[in-house]
Write a structure and sequence with these properties.
The complex is a heterodimer of chains A (366) and B (94).
Chain A: E1 9-13, H1 40-53, E2 57-61, H2 71-80, E3 84-89, H3 96-104, E4 109-114, H4 119-126, H5 131-144, E5 149-155, H6 163-172, E6 177-182, H7 187-191, H8 193-196, H9 200-216, E7 222-226, E8 246-249, E9 255-256, H10 277-283, H11 285-289, H12 306-309, H13 314-321, H14 337-349
Parallel strand pairs in A: 1-2, 1-8, 2-3, 3-4, 4-5, 5-6, 6-7
Antiparallel strand pairs in A: 8-9
Helix pairs in contact in A: 1-2
Chain B: E1 13-14, E2 19-23, E3 28-33, E4 36-38, H1 42-49, H2 57-68, H3 72-88, E5 92-93
Chain lengths: 366, 94
């Protein structure tokens, strides 16, 4: 067995509060309330521990991280520790002065999400009137503050035909990097799957568009492409493997191997309030549970891809099969694969149902 | 925007979103980019530490050729190839 490497990146979900209501939000269906959030001093102590542990990147995320008044203090603290700081934001709560302040305390990079390129459609998807126009304006403030910009575009059947314009928008805004991220179906997105799943033809066209743009924009725009695994033959290496690279900390302080892991039943995730990050990373049962290849069932265990995809995604495997250590149905060797592909083809071929928007208390249990 | 071509007269520097950082926990240099970590080899680190936006590729190559007592033409070609690779990844500007 290979020794456990230190983590590379920490996703700090500072809050679940967010003015947008995207129906594919990566936050859990049951969100933390403001009163449960970690305080400034606890986050700073956690960042100290993260830096000592070997973390290089800190991603400030949420919810909307700018909903926290102490964002500047947290960024400044990380910058002082030499950590690479990335602000992942919807941009709608930020103004010019706040960005100048964040740049001054050492923020390294800003990632702004867009819900498409066409304002009316984007605002409808985000559930926030005027949001798209505000994002464009704030992207200008980011560049003005001298900060590098990534545009993150979550794509699905209701905006995928805007992909060419999304790429043009990234270039026009001076982004150095664009994430074209097809929706991944857990939590809210799974609840909204029939409204979001693209057709195979839409997907193939999008992939060709990205490949052509990568070649055309080489050296000026990096495009990262996250594919929807329902149409894939092999699963993605979710989080680069369980407990291999990433730590995710929820607003209330639970430490998770990925942001969706709280959906897995019977697992106990330890809190930074009671344990050090080091103890949690190297010593907790939750991080050990699906780490490496020892937990794998057949055919994963003897598959030559086992250290490429690390068995895919546990949250997806559980959500679709009801078993924690099942083969990820995105894999063609899963007994559930045919059913998965059929559901994608069926749902994407029908008229999309209305969105269930992300709101605290909106997702009734099934 | 047009693709940048590294020539002997280019004065390269890291793109604004990239940091060259000594990783204490792993005792090695790392190139930090948004969502990416690259681990440059020893020679690449030597080259990158000279990329301050002022020194030209010619000057960088001369410095390294002298330091490692290697033929200048060969060093210059290696430097250009390595830097062009980073330009194409969006990590370097000139």
């Amino acid at each position: 067995m290979t020794p456990v490497e230190p983590p590379l990146a920490l996703l700090a979900e500072l809050t679940h509060r967010c003015p947008l209501q995207c129906p594919y939000c990566s936050n859990p269906l049951e969100m933390d309330r403001a009163a449960a959030e970690l305080d400034t001093a606890t986050w700073q102590r956690v960042f100290d521990e993260a830096a000592r542990l070997g973390v290089l990147h800190v991603h400030f995320s949420g919810g909307e991280p700018a909903a926290r008044k102490d964002l500047e203090a947290l960024v400044a603290h990380c910058a002082g520790l030499g950590l690479y700081t990335n602000l992942i934001t919807s941009a709608v709560l930020i103004d010019r002065a706040r960005l100048q302040g964040l740049a001054k305390v050492g923020l390294n990079h800003v990632q702004i999400s867009v819900q498409g390129s066409e304002p009316a459609n984007a605002d409808r998807i985000g559930g926030y009137a005027g949001g798209h126009a505000r994002k464009i304006e704030v992207a200008g403030f980011v560049r003005e503050a001298g900060l590098p910009l990534t545009l993150n575009a979550v794509m699905h059947r209701q905006n995928l035909d805007e992909l060419d314009e999304v790429i043009a928008l990234a270039v026009r805004l001076g982004a150095r990097r664009l994430e074209v991220a097809h929706v991944q179906y857990y939590g809210w997105a799974l609840r909204n799957r029939a409204a979001l799943m693209p057709t195979r033809a839409q997907l193939e066209k999008a992939t060709a568009t990205v490949e052509a743009a990568r070649e055309r924009l080489k050296g000026s725009l990096v495009i990262d492409y996250v594919v929807p695994d329902y149409y894939a033959r092999r699963p993605k290496a979710c989080m680069g493997g369980w407990g291999r690279r990433f730590l995710n900390i929820s607003p209330s302080g639970d430490v998770l191997p990925c942001h969706a892991a709280s959906t897995l039943p019977g697992m106990t995730f330890q809190s930074v309030k009671a344990h050090s990050l080091r103890d949690i990373w190297y010593g907790s049962e939750a991080f050990e549970r699906f780490r490496g290849t020892g937990w794998m069932p057949e055919p994963c265990r003897s598959c030559d891809q086992r250290e490429v995809d690390w068995g895919g995604c546990r949250c997806q495997a559980f959500a679709l099969t009801g078993a924690l250590d099942a083969v990820d149905p995105a894999c063609e060797f899963s007994d559930h694969h045919a059913e998965l592909v059929a559901s994608a083809e069926r749902e994407s071929g029908n008229a999309p149902p209305d969105f269930i928007y992300r709101r605290i208390g909106a997702a009734a249990p099934v | 925007m047009t693709t940048i071509h590294i020539t002997p007269a280019s004065a390269p520097k890291l793109a604004p979103q990239i940091r060259l950082h000594f990783d204490e926990a792993r005792q090695r240099w790392a190139l930090l980019a948004p969502e990416r970590v690259l681990v440059p080899d020893e020679i690449a680190v030597e080259i990158l530490r000279l990329c301050d936006g002022e020194a030209t590729v010619d000057v960088i190559a001369e410095t390294l050729a002298a330091r490692f007592q290697a033929p200048l033409t060969e060093v210059r070609n290696d430097v250009i190839e390595m830097l062009q690779g980073l330009v194409d990844k969006g990590m370097l500007v000139a």
